Inverse folding.
């Protein structure tokens, strides 16, 4: 029940009907007996500035930000953490009186999940599919761990921006773009392939970012940030080749746990959050 004393947080995106974040966070609040409520907030792109002002006006304590707004919100925030500035995308907002502070917990959530499943990206050859806000976070996280990074994207402009930004931050990593034609000869060399695009997400279940005429590297870890459905076409292709396939539920839980702590200053009950979304 929402009362006059209830602390409100939510998720801003378009669409947000597929999001499991309300289920996960509300389970955590119940487990800790906290008077908090997490709600989905469907916001069209043109309404982002007004929506952010609305967080303050309505007394929200914070919000998550999902596609397609992770980069669009940054000009309207009062403060942005150093890692979110370097990534160029925000997925968590803290509201303090009339101030909006932006953070990015995607990159550390991704690394924490890789650690959980026993994959060490240090020195790995990683292929990132896509060049949006999530690709920025994943590329940044892998750069922090010393992986060599190749980006395959139809948008060569945004891919080039990621490459330029990461290259300026680290001279030790090999960072560059790759074309689908070049991938044909080099696919087998990759240790990690990460889908950061929405292809495969409901209602795009039949689509995959992996080129249909190129064999998937069988020794690679296939990681799909999409978690609904649990097994995307991309992961099916990877499994058919013999590769290990993992969806983005683990990353979702770990990034959410960090957002939870930013809002509440309390450690999140990670096991409760994970059980909540697995039971959906």
């Amino acid at each position: 029940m929402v009362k006059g004393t209830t602390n409100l947080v939510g998720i801003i995106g378009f669409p947000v009907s597929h999001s499991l974040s309300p289920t996960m966070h509300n389970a955590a609040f119940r487990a800790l007996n906290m008077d908090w409520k997490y709600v989905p907030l469907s916001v069209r792109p043109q309404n982002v500035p007004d929506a952010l002002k609305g967080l303050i006006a309505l007394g929200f304590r914070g919000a998550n930000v999902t596609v397609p707004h992770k980069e669009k919100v940054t000009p309207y925030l009062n403060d942005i953490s150093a890692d979110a500035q370097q990534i160029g995308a925000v997925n968590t907002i803290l509201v303090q009186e009339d101030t909006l502070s932006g953070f990015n917990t995607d990159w550390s959530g991704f690394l924490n999940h890789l650690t959980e499943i026993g994959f060490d990206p240090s020195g790995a050859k990683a292929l990132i599919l896509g060049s949006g806000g999530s690709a920025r976070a994943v590329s940044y996280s892998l750069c922090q761990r010393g992986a060599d990074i190749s980006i395959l994207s139809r948008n060569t402009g945004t891919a080039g921006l990621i490459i330029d930004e990461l290259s300026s931050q680290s001279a030790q990593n090999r960072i560059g773009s790759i074309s689908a034609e070049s991938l044909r000869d080099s696919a087998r060399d990759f240790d990690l392939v990460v889908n950061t695009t929405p292809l495969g997400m409901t209602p795009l279940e039949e689509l995959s970012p992996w080129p249909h005429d190129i064999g998937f590297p069988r020794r690679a870890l296939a990681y799909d940030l999409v978690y609904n459905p649990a097994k995307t076409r991309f992961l099916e292709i990877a499994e058919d080749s013999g590769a290990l396939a993992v969806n983005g539920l683990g990353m979702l839980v770990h990034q959410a746990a960090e957002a939870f702590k930013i809002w509440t200053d309390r450690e999140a009950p990670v096991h409760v959050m994970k059980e909540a979304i697995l039971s959906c």
Notes: The CA atoms of residues 125 and 148 lie 5 Å apart. DSSP finds ten helices and twelve strands in the chain. Residues 107-247 form a domain with the Rossmann fold fold (CATH 3.40.50.720).
